């Protein structure tokens, strides 16, 4: 039963689910991950987990909530470059790149676990397979960035929003946080506008269009996809870039 799962395992379950979807995760590897984690942190909506210019000594694993990777330009405009869900390392790349070239902010209330880089060094030296799994996660981040870049270049704002909803649903579905084409997405329309690269006024029109076409409903922070084939077709969505199949790696 779920109530019998120890709290550390419950917190790490989304991360383990992400890995197991794509490869086998051994018992010793799971123990190594548990032991590498240190502090449990909480963040309020709007709070930064890590800021541009920081030189983190830890990488942060999100266990509850939604965060975003973003940049601010000199005029104050914000562009979201990624959305992180439970089971995602929000800044694993800082393990090697050292200095943050963007910020990560909480879109909702969030829980997270820190993984000191010294601990990650020991894990990767002891478990080459886990090293490849961490590498895989950063490669999937890169694939997702490419998909977003294509969307910003050639899709309309309505298509980009539809694509984002398809992506979030698939990513939540594989960690057991979405089913029957319904999922929790309690973010503001301002954040959505920053993600799809448009204004808050325009993104409101986009949501109204998707509702009028009977593709989605969005009420009380819950999105229901009413016609998945039509929404995916509108968005030109293909989840291949998420690499959701199990392979020997």
Question: What do these coordinates show?
Answer:
The chain is of the alpha+beta class. It folds into 2 domains: 2-150, Jelly Rolls (Sandwich), CATH 2.60.120.10; 156-242, Winged helix-like DNA-binding domain superfamily/Winged helix DNA-binding domain (Arc Repressor Mutant, subunit A, Orthogonal Bundle), CATH 1.10.10. The protein is built from 9 helices and 11 strands. It has helices at residues 7-22, 27-36, 94-97, 117-126, 128-154, 157-173, 189-196, 200-212, 228-235, and strands at residues 40-43, 48-50, 58-64, 67-72, 78-84, 103-106, 110-116, 178-179, 182-184, 216-219, 222-225. The strands form 3 sheets. Strands 2-6-4-5 form a 4-stranded antiparallel sheet. A hairpin with a 5-residue loop joins strand 4 (67-72) and strand 5. The longest helix is centred in the middle third of the chain and has 27 residues, at 128-154. The relative contact order is 0.15.
How would you summarize what this structure contains?
With 249 residues, the chain is α+β, with helices and mostly antiparallel strands. The protein contains nine helices and eleven strands.
Q: What is the average of the pLDDT values?
A: 94
Strand content: 15-25%
The major beta sheet can be summarized as: 4 strands, antiparallel
CATH architecture of the largest domain: Sandwich
> Based on CA inertia axes, which overall geometry fits?
globular
**If helices are DSSP runs of H or I spanning 4 or more residues, what is the number of helices?**
9
* Helical proportion, percent range: 40-55%
Poorly predicted sequence stretches spanning 5 or more consecutive residues: none
CATH first level of the largest domain? Mainly Beta
Examine the coordinates and then state which fold CATH places here, giving the name of the CATH topology of the largest domain. Jelly Rolls
Distance between the termini: 31 Å
Structural class: alpha+beta
CATH superfamily of the largest domain: Jelly Rolls
Topology pattern, helix = H, strand = E: HHEEEEEHEEHHHEEHHEEH
How much is the radius of gyration in Å? 18 Å
Please provide the count of β strands. 11
In the sheet with the most strands, the strands line up as 2-6-4-5
């Amino acid at each position: 039963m779920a109530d019998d799962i120890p709290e550390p395992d419950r917190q790490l379950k989304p991360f383990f689910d992400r890995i197991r979807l794509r490869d086998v995760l051994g018992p010793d590897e799971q123990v190594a991950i548990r032991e590498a984690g240190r502090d449990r942190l909480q963040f309020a909506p709007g709070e930064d987990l890590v800021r541009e210019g920081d030189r983190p000594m830890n990488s942060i694993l999100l266990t509850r909530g939604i965060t975003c990777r973003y940049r601010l330009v000199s005029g104050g405009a914000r562009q979201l470059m990624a959305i992180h869900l439970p089971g995602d390392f929000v800044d694993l790349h800082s393990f090697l790149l050292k200095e943050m070239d963007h910020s990560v902010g909480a879109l909702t209330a969030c829980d997270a676990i820190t993984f000191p880089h010294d601990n990650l060094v020991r894990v990767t030296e002891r478990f080459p397979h886990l090293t490849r799994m961490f590498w895989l996660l950063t490669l999937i981040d890169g694939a997702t960035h490419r998909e977003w870049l294509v969307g910003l270049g050639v899709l309309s704002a309505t298509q980009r929003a539809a694509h984002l909803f398809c992506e979030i649903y698939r990513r939540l579905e594989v960690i057991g946080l979405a089913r029957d084409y319904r999922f929790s997405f309690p973010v503001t329309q301002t954040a959505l506008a920053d993600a799809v690269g448009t204004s808050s006024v325009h993104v409101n029109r986009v949501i109204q269009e998707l509702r009028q076409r009977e593709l989605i409903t969005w009420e009380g922070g819950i999105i229901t996809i009413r016609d998945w084939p039509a929404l995916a077709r509108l968005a030109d969505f293909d989840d291949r870039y998420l690499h959701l199949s199990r392979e020997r790696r």
